[in-house]
Here is the input.
Amino acid sequence: MSHIRIIARLDIKGPNLIKGIHLEGLRVVGDPHEHALRYYAEGADELLFIDIVASLYQRNNLSDIIMRAADQVYVPITVGGGIRSLDDVSRMMHSGADKVAINTAAIARPQLVAEVARRFGSQCMVLGVEAKRVAPDRWEAYTNNGRERTSLDVVQWVREAVDRGAGEILLTSVDQEGTRRGFDLPLVQEVCDAVNVPVTASGGFGKLEDLTAIEPTGVAGVAIADALHWKRMTLAGIKAHAAAAGLDVRQGVPA
Amino acid sequence: MSRPVTVLDYGIGNLLNVVRALEHCGAAVTVRERGNACMAGIERLVLPGVGAFGDGMAELSARGLDDLVKGFALTGRPILGICVGLQMMFEASEEMGEHAGLGLLPGRVKAVPARGTDGQRHRIPHIGWRALESATQWRGTILADVPPGERVYFVHSFAAEPAQASDRLADVHYDGVRICAAAYRDNLYGCQFHPERSASTGLSVLRRFLAL
Here is the structure.
């Protein structure tokens, strides 16, 4: 029974925590700081902040939000969105990030993966992947928050990125994202089989059974947003259910 | 009352979260980048670490911090190594070639085995929250406030193998493979896990260290 981390995902636009469907159609949820503290208190195993418009505008506004959160949050923090250079990584690390998730810039210049891994360690270099199904068993990597296609095959791309030094994969299914219809299990399975580094699945969590369904893929983490943001579930509740179903998870902290 | 602690900065990785966590636990933190000045006034030392072992040792010695750590260890005052910081307290590592360590504790740093005891390949790096198991009595140590079985956060591909069983403070099992999670001897402490990233359990470890 493999251990699964339960990660709270916070998508950020400007000063707001937002949530969309298929990474689009965004609604404002509220203040990211308040939510980050709540998820930490409830026992999140990790916090994931993604600036969802950063690549588009070639900037990243997250450092202030991260700086504030890291002052009170003592679990790992991963930051993504618009990170294009070693200087950007360094800025995020000095704001309090433990790892960075890079998608668009890594596809534009795959050598960046090796540079980040060399300078900050592989454990810091998370490959962000936005996968969209293009055939029953084929997925294409997208950039700029699910907006632009790249013609890269997801499975080939994650293999290459891991060869270059990515220490972890954050795999977002654009098709499932925000739908509450469950994870794209064949996608998660393909990626988990293709690489030996830990894979976190994001996009589609809607009900507690989705966790038991994804466990056999060998996934190392799941990112949850919608269910937490709209308070349909708590981390403690999700974790209690997972533990009762026999999954190896860290317990949450009931409110 | 704030407790003075000196954190060594050897230019690799990020000290910020270690410093913040220590301050949260009531420490008055001084960051030290060079070993040239004397060690008087240092009450306790934290040697953090991420990245590669060889790079870390090279930077420590380029800054004269290796001698500072070795000298400080002899004073009997407490040292805490975290992750690669713990690993560097041992004699040598085989991460990307053979590299000598500080040699404060006997033993070597080796790759986390690629397979679990069931023979199946498992994921490397080893990342996740795993239960600490007692390898020796925790009373009076930095783990005194940690109930056995409590989970802490690990992220690593290499791990120390203490030559002496009595230097093992805590173990963790990764798919059946036993890994040294914490080491100690006298005033020397090391955590393979990240206390600064292990929520209230990790903070209790730092508080205990500050109270030594």
Remarks:
- Chain B is about 20% helix and 35% strand.
- The interface with chain A takes residues 13-14, 16-17, 20-21, 24, 50-52, 121-125, 127-130, 151, 153, 155-157, 175, 194, 196-200, 202-203 of chain B (CB under 8 Å).
- The first helix of chain B runs from residue 16 to 24.
- The radius of gyration of chain B is 16 Å.
